[in-house]
Amino acid sequence: MQQSIQSSVDAIEAERFRQFIMGVTDYAIYMLSPEGVVVTWNAGAQRFKGYHPDEIIGRHFSMFYTDEDRAAGRPVHALQVARTAGKFEDEGWRVRKDGSRFWASVVIDPIVDPQGELLGFAKITRDITERRVAAEQLERAREALFQSQKLEAIGKLTGGIAHDFNNLLNVIMNGLELLRLSRDPAVHAKSVDTMSRAAQRGASLTQQLLAFARQQPLRQEAHDAGRVIRSFEAVLRRALPDDMRLHLQLDSDLPQAMLDPTQFESALLNLVVNARDAMEGVGEVQLELAAVTLAAAEVAQLPAGRYVRVVVRDQGTGMTPEVMARAVEPFFTTKEVGKGTGLGLSQVYGLMQQCHGMLTLDSHPGEGTAVSMYFPAVEGGDLDDENAAAGTEQVLLVDDQPEVLETAISLFSHLGYEVLAADNGEQALETLRSNPGIAILFSDVVMPGMSGVELGKAARQEFPDLKIVLASGYVKTALRDEMPDIGNFEMIAKPYRLSDLIRTLKVL
């Protein structure tokens, strides 16, 4: 009697457990025969695999695997491991009834009788697609953060070296200007001596340039883009092998474009080399130049107006949408190791951003690629006369580098200014207070102690009518993050030429 009651209780408990298992919806829990045939099917399995019990019971569980996994024998391997090791655990792609895939976490346990005979398998499957997607997104975010930190470290290193190097270039360029403009032997001797010292320091600095400095300041001016292209045509043609041709299609009577000729030439060379590589050294690269009038939002981020458009077009392999979406990322490249750094298109994109223009890509696999650069057009207006006199006011020059300060004194004196000098911010403020006739403060930005921005703020507070110009080898946008107030002052980029100096002084 007692044994019969216990059997009834066991049967009731087993039925409750079976109903519990069958009602679970977050997990697919089902039994397999020793051969892998499905013999039970719960609500969770039906919910995220899509099969009703009548459709699946009696069929082999391998139908949930992808074609490639079945071909590799993974279902059979899973049962073998579960039988021999006592458990099988895995993650991988599985297939729903509608053919869609989900990422599954799988556990298979063997079921044996008291004598050790295999009765079948208990299989538990979880849909962890969301967790996998979240993990992948987190990994991509970590990679992006690492890349950002790496670029920031490289940028700080090379930006600092570039700043010092620009100071040296400033000495050399202005010394050459003085040699060209002055007939005084003493000025010639002094300039040559100063430039020689700067060149020696430059030779030492070049050994420290371990990476490409991406904080190169632009010298943006109104230029005839067609003239720049024609003067650079020979270099572009030499970049192509004998089996390739460069075809120029340059419209005439175009407006001038706001660009830096040196950086523009570098961008053209990058794009022509990319076109050459895309066509594997055979075919024709087209370089087109035209004026276009854009409506608002016709090209992303560009306001309506007149632009000079430069297009480099190839007939190469083209890009997939996935590659095109990443094409301007720094260090992203589809080229073989050693054949591309991934900085070429990124550099061109950065140039267009600094020029307040835009870079666009039009590419399809097997149909080639067209890279377009849109430069703001300048309608009418003549360039400033480089030989015009800048004025005869009193100017205070401030720089902690003796060679830079010495050259600046000679340059401003040649322009007719009465020059006073200081090598730090505190000395500059004392000079301003003792010389009320100073009309212009011309200071370097990065100096020990008081920076040029701090000097400018203090000077403007005491002398509201003082004209202030800050000079730096760093890009203004790069400095703005560390010195938000820099936007309140007129800026000039080092190295500056005599014409750049005249233009800056004329707008004060």
UniProtKB/TrEMBL annotation:
Keywords: Phosphoprotein. GO terms for molecular function: phosphorelay sensor kinase activity. Residues 88-140 form the PAC domain. PROSITE patterns: HIS_KIN (PS50109), PAC (PS50113), PAS (PS50112), RESPONSE_REGULATORY (PS50110). Residues 394-508 form the Response regulatory domain. Residues 13-86 form the PAS domain. It catalyses: ATP + protein L-histidine = ADP + protein N-phospho-L-histidine. Signal peptide: none annotated. The keyword ATP-binding does not apply. Transmembrane segments: none annotated. Residues 160-379 form the Histidine kinase domain. It comes from the Bacteria. InterPro entries: CheY-like_superfamily (IPR011006), HATPase_C_sf (IPR036890), HATPase_dom (IPR003594), His_kinase_dom (IPR005467), HisK_dim/P_dom (IPR003661), HisK_dim/P_sf (IPR036097), PAC (IPR001610), PAS (IPR000014). It is an enzyme of class 2 (transferase). The modification 4-aspartylphosphate is found at D444. PANTHER family: HISTIDINE KINASE, SENSOR HISTIDINE KINASE. This is histidine kinase. The lineage of its organism: Bacteria, Pseudomonadati, Pseudomonadota, Betaproteobacteria, Burkholderiales.
